[in-house]
């Protein structure tokens, strides 16, 4: 069995260069690859195209890369929690492609499955459909969407083994599974890394064939984006 383990985040992100397209798992601040994002900031990699559900908040998540002007283009479905993102977009500093959330997920999943394109009714008749092929299926109009073509997919899991098998926990099972294997190289950072063969096969969400590098992260903050409590 191939051992996918690397010693640290620095080794895991070897080969990341300026101008690359990178997928980053997570939903808001839930299940984001915190260690890898911090390392991208330290590497000062620039001109990145980032594919992610959203852009984090001003001082955490992808917001840290935005602060350093390391992102050239964001491909997202929701961007409403980041003031710096808004400023850069409105000023023209940041190129933004907004995509319906289901289409974003399916473009990841299609890349994962090796499917180059698919048709969806989402976005037909709107700006989303501009410049795209349109076809009718069963009396309903659909637009053609292309699978993503990313250099790296960086995901975060609760537990993994040295063969690259991954288990996600709770809501962190969001965009992480469909991004695993959806790029030329998939890097997984996990909270707990165990030896191959020790995970229950029935509990594995992503098989190791979709992962090229895996490492154990540390010092996760796991911030809550919007804390809501009820009055006593």
Automatic annotation (TrEMBL):
Pfam entry (one): CoA_trans
PROSITE patterns associated with the record: COA_TRANSF_1 (PS01273)
Superkingdom of origin: Bacteria
Keyword presence, Manganese: no
Entry-linked SMART domains: CoA_trans
Family: Belongs to the 3-oxoacid CoA-transferase subunit A family.
NCBIfam families: pcaI_scoA_fam
Protein name per Swiss-Prot or TrEMBL: 3-oxoacid CoA-transferase subunit A
